[in-house]
Amino acid sequence: MGSSRNRVLIFAAIFLCLFFHFPSQTVAMSRAKSLEITAKICKRTGNIKVCLQVLLSRPQALFRYDLMAMAENAIQLSRKESNDTVNFFNNLASSKDTNPALKLVLKSCISNFKEGFMFLNLSGLEGRTATFDMHNAYDQATACETDLSANKVAIDLVAARIKKWKDVFSVAMATAGVLEDSLPIPE
Asked: In what residue span(s) does the Pectinesterase inhibitor domain sit (predicted)?
């Protein structure tokens, strides 16, 4: 009788291990869909490595297997990066080590990124206007770069900060574009 009970326990242990180790067909299909969506998004960015880094920075959103969740995540990351960029320019402009002649253009960049931040909103995702709004945010970043260039400001840290913003932004823009393409066209 003892050996029969042991067999049942061993069988149950093996079954549970296999059950938890191998995903269900539904989960496997959802993961495949998530990977398909990720490929579409990253193809649009032009830099697959950066795209994957951005998307995987919050893997919980990536593995919800939902394009809307991925778009919300990407826009939230872009908003965070915009805020970090504003803080970067604030710190640079308020530093006593910064050349006073540069402070005006740095404050202009602060204004540009704050204005651009307002265009990075989630409400445009459902109304098919997210990419339009995001183009406006990008225009603000470009205005900052134009001001920097016109004033002959060439600081490696500034260029790196703007590049980081553009990298995250490109993923948000691509994700919003894939989402908008998947929505039915209103009649």
From this structure: 33-175
